[in-house]
Design brief:
three-stranded antiparallel sheet
Length: 132
Amino acid sequence: MSEIKVNDYIRTDEGIIGKIKRIELDKNDASLKWYVFDKKRPDINIIDEVYINKPYIKNNKEKPIDLIEESDILKYQIYKLSPAKIGEVKKYKDARSFKEYLGVEGFNLNQITILEILTKEQFEKESYKVGE
């Protein structure tokens, strides 16, 4: 993991994706940093400010697309004016180069417009399991 900077996107160990707003030093331990990001609560239109330490940050990148993992769920468009679709991210293999890539319905993530990301951790945590 590279150095975490303001405006980086992070993915936490709980699957939350957010953008770092600021970095604060702990008042009691100057060697401890708090990374602060916004988290939108899906049930109501409120944004919470979340403080997190580096051990709980799984990954950080400059673009949120680079934090997407296999089994995440995306709301996306293939073309700008096409209707939005929902699909699961899977690994595919290019027929010509045999290189693996992440995509939805065979489209590489760079070929689609991503509107929303629901991480696999969020899905597992928030899902109602039928029959329970």
